[in-house]
């Protein structure tokens, strides 16, 4: 099936953080693609990817990057698709640099910014699925079931490790 969500990341080193986004989309049976696209090291790849995303049939983008994390913002500058930004935890500044780089967009070019790290990646995928579910009742049911399973998995009392 043609991918509906594009997951892009600035580096191979970001994959560990972004992998849960892909896993959630797999669980929800949302067709998606995963690419390394660096705003700084492969700017032409970024331009080509983001500017052609809509015409290729993608409906939303999830973009993760760390440090001077310009990938989500530049992708948002090149497409009107919804872009969800995931700050990757950097070694030196623990991802605060990534978060601020992604969240502080100028008015008019939105990036929906998530939490730093894997929780942000997971939530980006859930948001992307929520957007798609607006027009896809079957996906809306799968999403509701996913959330219910999460609720059901929470024990009432803590157990010892
Ligand atoms: C950013 O620089 C990437 O998104 C990554 O989080 C960070 C470090 O990249 P590597 O030096 O590990 O390739 O562009």
From TrEMBL:
GO function term, MF aspect, one: 5-(carboxyamino)imidazole ribonucleotide mutase activity
EC numbers for this chain: 5.4.99.18
UniProt signal peptide: none
Top-level taxon in the UniProt lineage: Bacteria
Enzyme class: isomerase
GO BP term, example: 'de novo' IMP biosynthetic process
Keywords assigned: Isomerase, Purine biosynthesis
Pfam families to which the protein is assigned, alphabetical: AIRC (PF00731)
Keyword flag ATP-binding: no
UniProt pathway: Purine metabolism; IMP biosynthesis via de novo pathway; 5-amino-1-(5-phospho-D-ribosyl)imidazole-4-carboxylate from 5-amino-1-(5-phospho-D-ribosyl)imidazole (N5-CAIR route): step 2/2
Catalytic activity: 5-carboxyamino-1-(5-phospho-D-ribosyl)imidazole + H(+) = 5-amino-1-(5-phospho-D-ribosyl)imidazole-4-carboxylate
Domain PurE: 3-154
Binding sites annotated in the UniProt record for substrate: 11, 14, 41
General function of this protein: Catalyzes the conversion of N5-carboxyaminoimidazole ribonucleotide (N5-CAIR) to 4-carboxy-5-aminoimidazole ribonucleotide (CAIR).
Record family assignment: Belongs to the AIR carboxylase family. Class I subfamily.
NCBIfam families: purE (TIGR01162)
Protein name: N5-carboxyaminoimidazole ribonucleotide mutase
Higher taxonomy: Bacteria, Pseudomonadati, Pseudomonadota, Alphaproteobacteria, Rhodospirillales
GN (gene name): purE
């Amino acid at each position: 099936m043609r991918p509906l969500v594009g997951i892009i990341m600035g580096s191979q080193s970001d994959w560990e953080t972004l992998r849960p986004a892909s896993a959630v989309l797999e669980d929800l049976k949302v067709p998606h693609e995963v690419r390394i696209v660096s705003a700084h090291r492969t700017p032409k790849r970024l331009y080509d990817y983001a500017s052609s995303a809509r015409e290729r049939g993608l409906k939303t983008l999830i973009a993760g990057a760390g440090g001077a994390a310009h990938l989500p913002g530049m992708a948002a500058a090149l497409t009107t698709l919804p872009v969800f930004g995931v700050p990757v935890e950097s070694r030196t500044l623990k991802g605060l640099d990534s978060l601020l780089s992604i969240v502080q967009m100028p008015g008019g070019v939105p990036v929906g910014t998530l939490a730093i790290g894997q929780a942000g990646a997971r939530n980006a995928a859930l948001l992307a699925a929520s957007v798609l579910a607006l027009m896809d009742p079957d996906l809306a049911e799968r999403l509701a079931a996913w959330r219910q399973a999460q609720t059901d998995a929470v024990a009432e009392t803590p157990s010892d490790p």
